[in-house]
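User: Just a sanity check before I run the rest of the batch. Below are the structure tokens for the first item. I only need the designed sequence back.
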């Protein structure tokens, strides 16, 4: 796949370097880790050693001094090689960004160097059983008790809690002036009393496990609060916009990998006189998939550039569009790849069938495509709400 002209020479060099790393591991490594119920520790460690995991974090705290532009590039290229690292979305992109922007100096010193060098991981807990995609219905509450915070609530579909040193929990505190609940973020170490987790059985082939969390009178010190108690949605969306951009990168990498496998097959598989890729019934859908991936990538890059430039409002619209476009492009690319291979597309040997479920995730998480359409219709088009 050609490099976009809007990328700098440094970005193209980073792409090439990450692609080379991904190629050394590849889909076989990823599939073996999944089959063994293990984690991608070797790839994570080498990516960390090369400086890729913290490329978006501040240089003064051990990061690369770049932004979401660079981190999304890393995830996309690893995905295109068949070995994506989902925790890149969570640990450095969401948690690292929130702490870098809003954390205290003590929190930055305690967490950012470890998140940058891969020695520490942080999960992100926002989704709840009854709230779904509606962050305004979060029921996990935080109340003050002297100098401490006390958290109670439940979370579901939280990735990587078993391998994370802590989870950044989205709770809600009561505004003393209005009585309304407002979102706040808390760092909850993994072994905190009252903080429980149980795995969720998933029909999804991935190294990262999903968990349901329970917070039962979880007591935290005052310094567990990230940022200003009154900042509310500003701090929350500082993490959600990078999450959407990185989900787009995840989907693009997946789509590119599937399309690459299909192209290799279409160029060499011969049933009649010519390879099957010569027939327009296969060639045109593959060309369309390529176009859709390229268009989604451009929107992802726009969103990342806006976010890194500090345009949170513009980045919010573009990030949602990028996530939507990339998910649709990935689902189409994977489906067409499987169809191109026919029966072979459903075999373990070619490793594409499991991606049908994985691609669907990008349509659902971290926010459904319907909620994105709601956002665009309300915020971008000025249409009235139905809820």
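Assistant: Here's the designed sequence for the first item:
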């Amino acid at each position: 796949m050609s490099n976009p002209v809007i990328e700098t020479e440094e970005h193209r060099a980073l792409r090439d370097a990450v692609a080379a790393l991904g190629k050394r591991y590849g889909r076989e490594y990823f599939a073996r880790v999944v089959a063994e119920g293990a984690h991608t520790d070797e790839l994570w460690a080498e990516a960390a050693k090369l400086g890729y995991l913290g490329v978006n974090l501040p240089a003064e705290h051990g990061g690369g001094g770049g932004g979401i532009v660079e981190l999304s590039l890393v995830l996309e290229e690893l995905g295109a090689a068949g070995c994506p690292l989902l925790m890149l979305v969570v640990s450095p992109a969401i948690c690292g960004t929130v702490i870098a922007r809003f954390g205290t100096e003590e929190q930055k010193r305690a967490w950012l160097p470890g998140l940058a060098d891969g020695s520490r991981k942080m999960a992100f807990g926002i989704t709840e059983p009854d709230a779904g995609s509606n962050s305004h219905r979060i029921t996990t509450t935080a109340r003050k008790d002297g100098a401490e915070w006390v958290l109670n609530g439940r979370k579901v579909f939280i990735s990587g809690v078993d391998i994370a040193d802590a989870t950044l929990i989205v709770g809600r505190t009561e505004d003393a002036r209005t009585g309304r609940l407002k979102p706040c973020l808390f760092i909850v170490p993994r072994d905190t009393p009252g903080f429980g987790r149980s795995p969720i059985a998933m029909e999804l082939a991935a190294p990262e496990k999903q968990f349901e969390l329970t917070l039962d009178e979880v007591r935290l010190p005052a310094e567990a609060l990230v940022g200003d108690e009154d900042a509310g949605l500003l701090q929350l969306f500082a993490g959600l916009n990078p999450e959407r951009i990185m989900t787009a990168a995840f989907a693009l990498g997946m789509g590119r990998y599937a399309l690459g496998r299909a192209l290799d097959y279409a160029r060499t598989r011969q049933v009649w006189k010519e390879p099957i890729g010569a027939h327009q019934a296969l060639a045109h859908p593959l060309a369309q998939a390529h176009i859709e991936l390229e268009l989604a990538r451009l929107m992802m890059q726009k969103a990342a550039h806006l976010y890194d430039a500090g345009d949170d409002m513009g980045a919010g619209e573009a990030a949602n569009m990028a996530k939507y476009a990339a998910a649709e492009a990935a689902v189409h690319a994977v489906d067409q790849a499987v169809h191109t291979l026919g029966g072979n597309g459903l075999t373990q040997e070619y490793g594409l069938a499991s991606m049908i479920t994985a691609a669907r995730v990008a349509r659902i998480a971290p926010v459904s495509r319907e909620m994105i359409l709601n956002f665009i219709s309300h915020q971008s088009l000025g249409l009235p709400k139905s809820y």
